[in-house]
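Suppose you are handed a protein chain with no further information: no name, no annotation, nothing but its sequence. What can you learn? This example shows the usual starting point.
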Amino acid sequence: MKFLLNYHGQRRAIRRAYAFGVFARLGASIIGFGTPGGTHLARSDDPSIGRTAFVWEGFDEDKLARVVEQVGAHGTLIDVGANAGVTTVPALCRFGFEKAIAIEPSPDNLRLLRAV
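A reasonable first move is to predict its three-dimensional structure. Written in structure tokens, the prediction is:
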């Protein structure tokens, strides 16, 4: 059963990867999408974190869940290199952090972070 679930998840990711490329070719500069952790924005020219978050419907939320399991979601999350909020948004919306401080040096990513 685990193989079957993984297979369907991979097929969905392949379709989403194709869609990400189509959006970019159609001239969409920003792509909005939802994940279990919240709503996100990604630049269509971001081949790294934005694309990964779109394709896999989140970015390292399993790692964040393990951290929360070990230490809890008390107080404030400090996210250095926050990108467009792919960790900050789930920390607040899904994992119950009270507050987050997101630090992002890229002006393009900072604009997206402020928009979410």
